[in-house]
Amino acid sequence: MERMRRPSPQTIAVLQALLAEPDAWRYGYELGQQVGLKAGSLYPILMRLADRGLLEASWEAPAAEPAGRPPRHLYRLTGDGRELARQTAPAPARARASTRLRSAQ
């Protein structure tokens, strides 16, 4: 049985950024800017999360403009990724989430 370690603070920051808009597809560059991580730290985190089934990854459809720009990778949380993001949220955020869940029932 594989033991699940607590994610690093950098991974938690990425999860929280994605949880803010859980249905939205996000670019890696945009996430890096938001959480203050450089590509050498961010992309290994995104690849690990995708390999574990916590993120969906997709290639952007080619656009007509600007010509020559390569397609970009897009990311969003899976259901399991959302659950992990909620579990690793700072305590006040977890309390707000549980209050929203109770009021929605």
Structure description:
This protein is mainly alpha-helical and 105 residues long. The protein has a single domain, classed as Winged helix-like DNA-binding domain superfamily/Winged helix DNA-binding domain (Arc Repressor Mutant, subunit A), CATH 1.10.10.10. Helices cover 52% and strands 11% of the residues. It is built from five helices and three strands. It has helices at 9-19, 28-35, 39-51, 79-87, 91-104, and strands spanning 26-27, 55-59, 73-77. The protein has a three-stranded antiparallel beta sheet. The longest helix has 14 residues, at 91-104. The radius of gyration is 15 Å and the shape is globular. The N and C termini lie far apart (35 Å).
